[in-house]
Amino acid sequence: MRSWRFWTFYWGGWALVGVYMSSMDVAHYHIPWRPNLAANLFLFLLWGALALSVRSLLRQVPLERTGGLRSWLFHIGASLGITCASVVLVHFFFQILVHHRLPDLLGAETWRLVLLSIRTEFQSNFLVYWGAVMAFLALDARENAQKHQLLAARLETQLGQAQLQALRMQLNPHFLFNTLNAVASLIHSDPEAADQMLARLSAFLRLTLDLPPDTEHSLRQELVFVESYLAIEQIRFRDRLRIAWEVDEALLDAKVPVLLLQPLVENALHHGIAARERGGRITILARAEGRRLDLEVADDGPGCAPDRLGSGIGTANTMARLEQLFGKEQRFRLAATSQGTCVQVKIPLQWVDQGARLHPGIVS
Questions:
Q1: Do 193 and 337 share a domain, yes or no?
Q2: What total number of domains does the chain contain?
Q3: Per-residue pLDDT, 364
Q4: What is the CATH number of the domain that holds 288?
Q5: Range scoring the smallest mean pLDDT among 59-68, 204-213, 251-260, 349-358
Q6: Cβ contacts of 38 within 8 Å, gap of 6 or more
Q7: Contact between residue 268 and residue 277 where contact means Cβ atoms under 8 Å apart
Q8: CA 135 → CA 129, 149, 356, distances in Å?
Q9: Distances from the Cα of 198 to the Cα of 181, 183, 185, angstroms
Q10: What's 214's DSSP letter?
Q11: Average pLDDT, the chain
Q12: Who's near 334: CB < 8 A, 6+ residues apart?
């Protein structure tokens, strides 16, 4: 059901066209303006009503892009009939308006004048008919494009949520089993550390369950999640794990994908630090470069062979999510350096609502 505003605009538009055409007739032919204005208003308001029937015909017999010869023949015939009917109705209306009497429908002179009107007015009215057809086809094309855009946006959102859900399902069992194994190894040798690890595991899992259903949240929330994860690993690795935070606090309300950093930090920990007897350092960096947010996760481990860079599930998942969320506006770079491995992510700098401030640092 269309709103009253639409119908006001619709009928008002046809009326304005009638007023404009009447002013042109009066200016060029110097004829009385009152009957001319009345005739033009009647003509174009009549076409407003006829256009609705044209709309109905287009829905019942749509004009196909390919083929559809029968559809075109139908609408050509309909345009001829409706155009002639409009000219005849306006002719009789004008005669009644001028002569103040009903025309003699059986008189030869009446129909001679009708044929003359059809001959002189048919072309312009025929163009009005097909102008209405083109306008309705353009509106349909626009509505279809908007529907496709909405559908595409919904599918992209569902894809992002599906990828995030898959990442959660991958994260929880994997991390849980590793942590429980660590607890089992500590429970006799260091019961206090095992108890502390279980407490932090509980807090981490609670954060996992409380992650927002959206595909993005603030950098502040992402760092809280990473801190909680590293707090557990800090108990496992003790002095072998050192964390360096280089985060600009002005960026804590920047918007980032959920679970963007955690898989990168986990890769750095297990491939760069865990294999080294003396451990190492993980650096987490966040800075602004113009209108872009630059995020880096680097380790000073032994690095990775060039042919294995980016071959992990977590890395591939992160790259796919970034491509789905930002398209060509994102950059993902994974490189082995002389001091280890560095992952760099560049995304558009966007902001979320202000929330509680977080000073990023190791959870004690």
A1: yes
A2: 2
A3: 31
A4: 3.30.565.10
A5: 349-358
A6: 97
A7: no
A8: 10, 21, 52
A9: 11, 7, 13
A10: S
A11: 79
A12: 309, 310, 315, 341, 342, 343, 344
Over the range 54-73, which residues count as b (16 or more CB within 10 Å of their CB) and which as e?
bbebbeebeeeeeeeeeeee
pLDDT band, residue 357 (cuts 50/70/90): very low
Percent of the chain with pLDDT over 70: 80
> Other CB atoms closer than 10 Å to residue 177's CB: what's the count?
10
Q: Minimal CA–CA distance to 43: which of 103, 130, 128?
A: 128
**Strands 292-299 and 340-348, bridge-based pairing:** antiparallel
Q: Which two tokens stand for residue 18?
A: 């009638």
CA distance 128 to 133: 9
Distance CA 124, CA 83 (A): 9
Does the model's pTM come out above 0.85?
no
The structure tokens 């605009």 sit at 9
In this structure, the strands spanning 292-299 and 280-289 are: antiparallel
- Are 235 and 201 in contact, with CB atoms under 8 Å apart? no
Regarding whether 130 and 215 lie in a shared domain, the answer is no
Same domain, 203 and 142: no
pLDDT confidence tier of residue 307, bands split at 50, 70 and 90: low
pLDDT, tens digit (0-9, with 9 covering 90-100), for 63-92: 765 457 888 888 888 888 888 888 888 777
Residues 92, 235, single domain; the answer is: no
Residues 133 and 208 in one domain: no
CA 121 remoteness from chain centre: 47
Q: What is the pLDDT of residues 8-53, one digit of tens each?
A: 888 888 888 888 878 887 777 677 777 778 877 887 888 888 888 8
Three-state DSSP at 173 gives: helix
What percent of the chain is predicted at pLDDT more than 90? 18
**Which range of residues forms the domain containing residue 256?**
187-348
- Residue 55: partners with Cβ closer than 8 Å, 6 or more residues away: 132, 136
| pLDDT for 178 | 73
Q: Is the same domain home to 344 and 207?
A: yes
From the list 217, 278, 218, 223, the residue with the least C-alpha distance to 246 is 223
